[in-house]
Amino acid sequence: MDHHDHMGHGGMDMPSSGPKCNMNASQPPPSTFSLLPLLINVLQMLFTWDTTNLCIIFPQWHIHSTFSLLMSLVGVIVLTAGYEFVREMSRRYEASSADYANKLPRKNAGEAEKRQKLVKGLFYAVQVFYSFFIMLLFMTYNGWVMLSVAVGAFVGYLAFGNSSSTKSVACH
User: Using CA atoms, how far apart are residues 69 and 50, in angstroms rounded to an integer?
Assistant: First the structure.
């Protein structure tokens, strides 16, 4: 019995799995080995200015209008400027903790040094996490998002960069 006439699903309402994000990706060509497409996900990331179905980091951060694009770009600027704030707070803590440690009697210095190392480690962990998050923003390869990261770094440095700019801006 031939069922090709009524086996289509065109008239059915299929549930949506959320926003369809343009991840700027291409899938590998079909293979005769059926597991290969399941095991290999080849992403070809290309620079673009297109914001059609753009998702920034999460599928929930989906750009669906000019307004959501503008609000997202402002959010990226604020997030990136916030990184400079965290860096400045870390530098201030290091400076103040060094002054504090120098004023302590030698017998109390060991405990204070342990606490300072713990706080410095927490600042470092936050900076690493934050920098990788910013790297993911940049890796959308969307020109608008990339420019917003740069503008945020500029604004953050102007607002919070009270010390030298020679400290590395690498991922961590």
Answer: 11
